[in-house]
Amino acid sequence: MRIYRKEGDEVQLIAFQDEQVQKGDYFLIEDPSASKGLLVQVIDLQYANVPGVLEDILRDVMTDGELAGEDIDPLNITSEVDALKDTRLAVCKVRGTITQDGTLSSSTSWLPSRTSSRIRPYQVNQLITNGGKRPVKIGHNDGEPVQIDATGLDGGLNIITGRKGTGKSHLAKLLLLSMAGWGAPCIVLDVNGEYVNLHRSRDGKLSSARLSVLGVRNGLNFSLGKLGLRTVAGVLSHALDLPATSSKVFTTIWRELEARGEVTLPSLVSSVQSWSCNESVREALVSRLQVLQESGLFLDETNPLTEEKILRSIDGGGVLVVNLKNQSQTVRRILVEIFLGELTKILSSNWLKAAFLFAEEAHLYLRDTYWDDIVTRMRHIGLFTTFITNQPDTVQETIYRQADNIFIFNFTNEHDLDAIGKVAKSDSETIRYLVRGIPARRCLLLGNVVRDLPMVVDVEALDVRTMGETRLFFS
Amino acid sequence: MLHRTQELSQPLPEIKSIPEGVNLHPIPDTLLELSTRSMQKLNGGSFNPRNVSLVDIGIDDGDTEERLDIGPAQASLGLRSSPIQPIRDFVQIAACDASSVKIGETETGMIFAIRAVAVWRSPDRVTFTRWGPLLFHIPNSDGQPDRSSDDDSHLFGGLSVKTLRVLTKLRNHVERWAQEVLSATVRNGIVLFDGSLTAGTPDNPAGRVNRILSTARSNNSVVLALSKSTQLTVGGKNILGFTHGEKSPHIIDITQIVETEYPAYPVRFLGRVCVVKFTPDGFLFRLDIDKEADEEAALVSLGRVAGNDVIIHGYPETLRIAHIFSTFTANEILAIQRFVAANHRITLQPRPSLRRSLFGPFGTSRYVA
User: Fold this and answer.
1) Is the Cβ pair A75, B52 closer than 8 Å?
2) What is the pTM of this model?
3) Which residues contact A225 (CB under 8 A, 6 or more apart)?
4) CATH, range A135-220+305-459
5) Is B249 inside any structural domain?
6) Out of A71, A250, B142, B244, which residue is the most buried by the measure of CB atoms under 10 Å away?
């Protein structure tokens, strides 16, 4: 390989026919006189712009049809021409400098010699993962295993995104089980009910993973009194869009019932019906409380799901799956509102140090104001969220800007690429070139877990019942 | 300066003694040996590869142009125009061409590549054979670097006169050999050459051209040679400017006035010199027709070319393909430079162009070999 040119943070290398280069590969341009090397990553492969190649190709095309012939080429120059035609231009981004002692420095303010530098493939795995305290085997890169350190996901905001069927949920499950394996409390908001069998292998055997699954009429049963005014008022306002005036009346009614120790859903409904207030306020409150009654989440207020029960299921490395499958959007929103309220309580009370929330297709149930909440307030109380989505434009831009780790699977649509191009952890060109056209189960890792060295990884297979596959008619 | 009718008397003994008796089809061993021997002397030296860019790649396809101005008096002798009637009856048409290109400079000379192509047209397909490229290292006559390459000799594409002569001789030799292949293999057909049927210089001996024409005749084929450009003028006007306002395909025979004006020796016109227009919308070309061929048969042959070949801008496609396939692309020049560097243990040492350094974009030469 040879250095062709450098412009900004982009270096172009000429790669000859017999040299193996792939998008995502790292190369070290070692300058012996400087005793250091420039670390670059290939983001795109192009054909070298050899002068006159168009003419050559047009000639070749001529001979494909009615024109046939033979070359008596004693020096076999044709093979040299073919080699030239196949000469590639590797467009690379500068990632840093490898110093003499093998450490990575972010300094890129020097230029290696174009004539005397030696260019060799460089395995960045050693820089990224080896030696981590809590390794998570995430997959392999060019045959080499890739491990990330679970601490890289700690305290952060993560995004897993990619087209449908490219392996997002698969990676989420892998991370989830690995995090739980390292003792991290994890909660999943499961829209499609695909996490409910994570503790079972494909052949049905139970694994050591601690998994609790809760669903409507299957453990998700709450008591209004236990939830408290703040959570319930939040549900009415945010999940059920109760107007502010009605909310005030509701608070007054609540306080009165609370003083009498009678905060239950039926007593609330009855109080609202007999309360002296504007008829429209009454109607607004009654209709919302009826939704709560019909949701099936308050069937037995004497035996509710409490913070303690939630805590028990996840503390010390458990996975709590909140199954939202087959629920209406309203019920999902109510559930998520309640759950986030409960988690906030648990974390604010320091009963739990931190929790990891995995949110699939969050736009289906997360109200707008929660996005900002997750990025700011909830991070500080120890709720670390991983968003999983195949519609990157549904995730707010602030989330991309604040994300600490991003796992990107295949995208081809420009609109999608534009949306994820806003991440602060990498330049948009790297994302655009590396993500477009990568096969299923291969993803681009960006952020803390890879020490900001973008890496393409074939995600590890997982022996669990995923239930996430699309149901097919013809197979 | 050497005139092209003068014999070279300087060194370059190997290249001077080009063998004339050659076999057909495979590249003759003698030619291969000559190429190998000339290149063997390179081992271990340094090599200044030519710059390859599309704007100044300049391919020399070896067209020769006779410079002759025929006065208006002769022109007034009258030029007879004969119409060409396209004839659809199938006849095999074959064409050949050869090209040379400079690959780079060594400490003691220059490296050139030469390639020849023959093309055969049948009713349903076109086939070709391409011979080469063959590489030749042409040493400077005194074995010293060609110091004049950046100044006066730019008139000759950066080549010294002697180097240019040797190159011309080599290319002519290869092209004549390809013509021999065609004249010997095409029967009852038409053989198209690129250039003219003028011969009689040391670089282009008349005897060999005569033999080619004779072989073709013995195979009942007619040789037609087409020149894309010519320096033949009549009354100060290039013969390719003769239209007489006539748009239909026709031929104008100017042999008589050309021969009257031109000395009979050493250069010899082995063909009847004509101006031809194959299609109403096409250009005019100089056409040399084997002088020994029957005049009527020659006219029929032209009709067959017009009727069987695809004529693009007045030029037969078979000959056009031969030309396209023989010329070197920039990519091929790079590939040959790579081959030379890899196989002759030569160090590539691009030499900065003094002309370019001094004059920048205004320093390009008009002619580049």
Assistant:
1) no
2) 0.71
3) A258, A263, A264, A301
4) 3.40.50.300
5) yes
6) A250
